[in-house]
């Protein structure tokens, strides 16, 4: 694996390390906190096929990002497993010099069919989102009545295919906070790392209110009282989750506290939307169009300069700025399902 030619840093001295690639803005779920059904209904204008970056375009851009320091790729969306022939894309990305890790975030509904092929193509690990073990609550939260058992079965298929699995649970007060302990008990037993995500004010349509956020500290205390926890050291610079281990086991649990303990100071993540816009923050309103130059014959050097210049100008620290505010900052944001969660 070659070393990056020139690791670029932003205005706050943060290097570019991770690229989160959204491969589609579509999803078969309508999670209330992400794609509420009343907004993302039948009339919603999703991206047309010709607007999506092709696999060749994504791979070419990945090669340029690695020259600037990117080592870790996360495939996301929308629901990434809705994109046809995903294993083919994974194989192409895996062949890019400098890519050291390819992870996938998915709602798990289509995982059983594809787990083996994804693993073989080069996916190193998957994160499956699941917010409850109760069918009624999960069905309401995913917006389409999708069953818990199917997701749990698919998680085990992925694990048996040799993919380490993490679970993401978004916690909303009054909606699924009663699921915190049952989820912790279940995944402790299964041996998969569960991560609790504070409900965030992403996008413009999820009706976010600070009083629906359950602070990670509360969840740590709640779990520790029943199943003692000990902290685990940061695994890498800028790690998103604070990790703990159940005492006496190797099973981990994580907390993603972007509302109450923002981690902008070490944020190394760039996001590439399915239509090829580069976003330097999850809460950015505008992305930089890479598809137009890509399709108009720009050279790799031109594209590298464009990406380098964008990262160098980056000063984003939305979650830190929002801290201590009782509401979201009233700015126009891109939707998470569009720019890649
Ligand atoms: N505010 C904010 N939230 C983030 C950011 N990155 C990830 N998240 C949130 O954390 C969730 C989990 O991210 P994942 O991609 O599953 O995890 P990760 O921590 O990057 O993954 P690992 O590589 O396993 O450490 C995302 O779905 C977001 O909700 C970020 O840069 N800013
Ligand atoms: C946007 S989804 C895309 C990938 C895939 N569809 C999935 O759900 O895993 C990525 C992650 O973002 C999380 N997410 C979405 N909206 C969120 C919000 N408002 N607050 C916190 N996390 C959110 C989801 O739970 C999921 O784990
Ligand atoms: S969180 Fe994932 S599964 Fe849920 S609506 Fe958003 S993109 Fe779809
Ligand atoms: S809010 Fe923006 S800058 Fe802060 S951690 Fe998230 S993506 Fe990074």
From TrEMBL:
SMART domains: Elp3
Reactions catalysed, as given in the entry: GTP + AH2 + S-adenosyl-L-methionine = (8S)-3',8-cyclo-7,8-dihydroguanosine 5'-triphosphate + 5'-deoxyadenosine + L-methionine + A + H(+)
Top enzyme category: lyase
Binding site for [4Fe-4S] cluster 2: 264, 267, 281
Coiled coil: none
Binding site for GTP: 20, 74, 105, 166, 269-271
Cofactors (names): [4Fe-4S] cluster
Cofactor binding note of this UniProt entry: Binds 2 [4Fe-4S] clusters. Binds 1 [4Fe-4S] cluster coordinated with 3 cysteines and an exchangeable S-adenosyl-L-methionine and 1 [4Fe-4S] cluster coordinated with 3 cysteines and the GTP-derived substrate.
UniProt pathway annotation: Cofactor biosynthesis; molybdopterin biosynthesis
Annotated S-adenosyl-L-methionine binding sites: 33, 78, 129, 200
Enzyme Commission number(s) from the entry: 4.1.99.22
Radical SAM core domain sequence ranges: 11-230
Record key words, sorted: 4Fe-4S, GTP-binding, Iron, Iron-sulfur, Lyase, Metal-binding, Molybdenum cofactor biosynthesis, Nucleotide-binding, S-adenosyl-L-methionine
Subunit details: Monomer and homodimer.
Functional description taken from the UniProt entry: Catalyzes the cyclization of GTP to (8S)-3',8-cyclo-7,8-dihydroguanosine 5'-triphosphate.
HAMAP family per the UniProt record, alphabetical: MoaA_B
UniProt-listed NCBIfam families: moaA
Family: Belongs to the radical SAM superfamily. MoaA family.
Descriptive protein name: GTP 3',8-cyclase
Organism, as annotated: Paenibacillus sediminis
Lineage: Bacteria, Bacillati, Bacillota, Bacilli, Bacillales
GN (gene name): moaA
